[in-house]
Amino acid sequence: MISVDRVDHLVLTVADVDRALEFYTQILGMTPVTFPDDRRAVSFGRQTIKLHAASELVEPTAMHPVPGSANLCFITGNALSEVQEHLRANDVRIEEGPVSRTGAEGPITSLYLRDPDGNLIEIARYDDAPEAEPALEAQ
What InterPro entries does UniProt report for this protein, alphabetically (predicted)? Predict the structure, then answer.
């Protein structure tokens, strides 16, 4: 029997890597990454999302890679009201939420939105998570 520890990276097939990169960095606060051969990705925590253009797939790949076929859930330490304000300020439509759901480690409250390719993105916060410390303002 093998044992899997964690997810290292995911690959999203996207129509436009630049547009996807902008969304994941500007809207979701992820960090841009460039790999050899100008392959691009975003990272957060200990994970990476590699962004592969549908017109230039990297082999091996999924059997039917198409933009907009993913459903991803990201956990935030921010209050969901802050997330809602940020999304609205950036003209990102909230599809649904806040709604109660179940995450890998227990009850979560979620907001749903879509990335530029139509992938369903869930931003969630564990219901028993402590409030994040407010950011210190520059003086």
Answer: Glyas_Bleomycin-R_OHBP_Dase, Glyas_Fos-R_dOase_dom, GlyoxalaseI/FosfomycinResist, VOC_core
- pTM recorded for the entire structure: 0.89
DSSP state of 73: E
- Report the b/e string of 51-88 with b at 16+ CB within 10 A: bbbeeeeeeeeeeeeebbebeeebbbebebeebbeebe
At residue 137, the pLDDT reads 47
Name every residue whose Cβ is closer than 8 Å to that of residue 9 and which is 6 or more positions away in sequence.
Answer: 41, 47, 48, 49, 50
- Torsion over CA: 54, 56, 58, 60 (sign): positive
Check: CB of residue 94 under 8 Å from CB of residue 84: yes
Q: What angle do CA 4, 49, 118 make, to 5 degrees?
A: 120
Element at 84 (helix H, strand E): helix 80-89
> Annotated active-site positions, please?
122
For residue 29, pLDDT beyond 60: yes
Cross-strand pairs, 31: 43
